[in-house]
Amino acid sequence: NTLAESFAVMDNAYMQAREADIRSLAERLTEILQGKQMVQIQLTEPCILAIHDLSPAQTMELDLKMVLGFITEQGSVNSHTAILARTLGIPAIAAAGNLPEHIHGKDAVLDGKNGILYVSPDAEILKSHAQNRAEEKINRDKWENVRGQRCKRQDGTPIRICANAGSMDDIHVSLENDAEGI
């Protein structure tokens, strides 16, 4: 508790978000020591997961072929779970507050970039979302043109780019995207 509380009072929002990571880790370690199994989230079809909170460990256990995105009531944009979502390319909204029950089972579009969940979207929103996804693909394709080039400052000084990795798969993806370390 003391370690988590010391992060909570830091001036930096990113470091404050580490408080939740420390508490999540402590809870998971306690569960392991007590012989409890982690709650597995079983998805039977591709969906946007609307959930109270999602730990980094639960995020890593998700079947990513079934996750179109997720929205959590708790957390923060700087939480480890949110960072994992960005790394994995999963649209997400964290700290959305109380989610109404009526959204469950409805068609929806999740705009993680702008933090908006459209429930029962109309044709205009669907068209706009499709256009945004096409633009994102064009932008990703543009980045392909610089693959293999090393980052450097204007004066030519090299900048070493490293990645955050939680598994061997993350390391593989990081190396494919030119990370120079972990």
Helix percent reads: 40-55%
Unreliable runs: none
- How many separate helices? 6
Overall body shape: globular
Number of strands: 5
Largest sheet: 3 strands, parallel
Strand content: 5-15%
- Topology order in helix (H) and strand (E) letters: HHEHEHEEEHH
Q: Radius of gyration from the CA trace?
A: 19 Å
Structural class: alpha/beta
Can you give the mean pLDDT? 86
By oligomeric state, this entry counts as single chain
Strand order of the largest sheet: 1-2-3
Distance between the termini: 28 Å
Task: Give a written overview of the molecule.
With 182 residues, the chain is an alpha/beta fold. The chain has six helices and five strands, in the order H-H-E-H-E-H-E-E-E-H-H. It has helices at residues 2-8, 13-33, 56-61, 80-88, 123-144, 168-176; strands at 47-51, 67-72, 92-93, 108-111, 116-119. The strands form two sheets. It has a three-stranded parallel sheet with strand order 1-2-3. A two-stranded antiparallel sheet has the order 4-5. The radius of gyration is 19 Å and the shape is globular.
Summary?
The chain has 182 residues and is an alpha/beta fold. The protein is built from 6 helices and 5 strands; from the N terminus they run H-H-E-H-E-H-E-E-E-H-H.
